[in-house]
From TrEMBL:
CDD domains: DMB-PRT_CobT. This is Nicotinate-nucleotide--dimethylbenzimidazole phosphoribosyltransferase. Pathway: Nucleoside biosynthesis; alpha-ribazole biosynthesis; alpha-ribazole from 5,6-dimethylbenzimidazole: step 1/2. It is an enzyme of class 2 (transferase). PANTHER family: NICOTINATE-NUCLEOTIDE--DIMETHYLBENZIMIDAZOLE PHOSPHORIBOSYLTRANSFERASE. Catalyzes the synthesis of alpha-ribazole-5'-phosphate from nicotinate mononucleotide (NAMN) and 5,6-dimethylbenzimidazole (DMB).
């Protein structure tokens, strides 16, 4: 499969952006990591004057065949129910998006139900849920390729969207994400498994045993093979959004554990995508720390969130707007010291 070309950053422009930030009316470095964010946004957009016009959260939904093994405390039907809740504007992500001026786009990549058409629902369904990865490959090569292509295409649309956020909804996807992290980091499987949406001790034991069976079934490590063996459709479509968004020089703001695993998969497919991914927050899900360490990145926020839906990414949108305002609104130190502001 052919992936879009993702350009590395222009080193001279990055140096100019840093010089601009250093020359603003403040002691150098006094705005801490917000300064790094401002430079990064300019480097991503390849502009000395980065801008954040429209911001869109893509909440991609899918179901997981391995949920039949009891890897989640919740039935797969909750995925469909939460998609309906998001379409009604009543999920957490909707409330936070209204507060942070973020558009929400809900995408069906593989919900195990026939969803009625809705003006705010994008139908990219590849199939109704993945196959049970403890028994057989979750997907075919063709299904993986089609999910990636759908994400790449979606991310390339509407050129005035400057930042794309990765969000997801999929009961059982913390189990799938643990398998992907185990193979793609790589890291010991046990360290990648957390409580997901919540588990008691018996539930955790069931989840660990099922994931050990799935991991023992296939020893693949190449990224496309890993995605075929373990899924899931929403994670793969999100990886496509990373590739398409980076190729069109958009900021990719990554939500929690599952969205971060999607970003990792994209980065394993096209390493240049890494610089375009900004990790919004540190999820409380076990395994997220491993992923952040592997990618040597520090998230913007740490609020103890572990919801998904794109909630953490949406909350970081104001930081993007704040960072670009430094370039557009702040006087230079030279102007201040020479009295040129009047
Ligand atoms: O993104 C996270 O950090 C995160 C951590 C734990 C759970 N979730 C959400 O909870 C669901 C997955 O949990 P589970 O237990 O069903 O695998 C899925 O809908 C995710 O959006 C999300
Ligand atoms: C209710 C509920 C809402 C969610 N949102 C994202 N993952 C979720 C999981 C559950 C169970």
């Amino acid at each position: 499969m052919n992936f879009p070309v993702i350009e590395p950053f222009d080193a001279a422009l990055t140096a100019s952006l840093r010089a601009r930030v250093d020359g603003l009316a403040k002691p150098p470095g006094a705005l801490g990591r917000l300064e790094d964010l401002a430079v990064r946004l300019g480097a991503i957009q390849n502009r000395i004057d980065p801008r954040i016009r429209r911001v869109r959260a893509c909440v991609v939904a899918g179901d997981h065949g391995l949920n039949a093994q009891g890897v989640s405390a919740y039935p797969s039907a909750v995925t469909q129910a939460m998609v309906a809740t998001m379409l009604a504007g009543r999920a957490s992500v909707n409330a936070l998006a209204r507060a942070c001026d973020v558009e929400v786009c809900i995408v069906d990549a593989g919900v195990d139900a026939d969803l009625a058409p809705h003006p705010r629902l994008r139908n990219e369904k590849i199939r109704r849920g993945t196959r049970d990865a403890t028994i057989e490959a979750a997907l075919t090569d063709d299904e993986v390729a089609r999910a990636l292509a759908a994400g790449i295409k979606l991310a390339g649309e509407e050129s005035d969207i400057d930042a794309l956020m990765l969000g997801e909804m999929g009961i059982g996807n913390s189990a799938t994400a643990a398998l992907l992290l185990h193979r793609l980091a790589p890291a010991a499987l046990n360290d990648c498994i957390g409580a997901g949406a919540g588990h008691d001790a018996a539930g955790m034991a069931r989840k660990i045993a099922a994931l050990e069976r799935a991991a023992a079934r296939s020893n693949v490590t190449a990224p496309l093979d890993v995605l075929r063996e373990f899924g899931g459709l929403e994670i793969i479509l999100l990886a496509g959004i990373v590739l398409g968004g980076a190729a069109s020089r958009r900021v990719i703001l990554v939500d929690g554990f599952i969205a971060s695993v999607a970003a990792l998969a994209a980065i394993r497919l096209v390493p240049a995508a890494r610089e375009y991914c900004i990790f919004a927050h540190a999820s409380a899900e076990r395994g997220h720390r491993i992923l952040l360490d592997v990618l040597q990145t520090q998230p913007l926020l740490d609020l103890g969130l572990r919801l998904g839906e794109g909630t953490g990414a949406v909350l970081a949108a104001p930081l993007l707007r704040a960072a670009v305002n430094l370039f557009s609104d702040v006087a230079t130190l030279d102007d201040v010291l020479s009295g040129r502001l009047g």
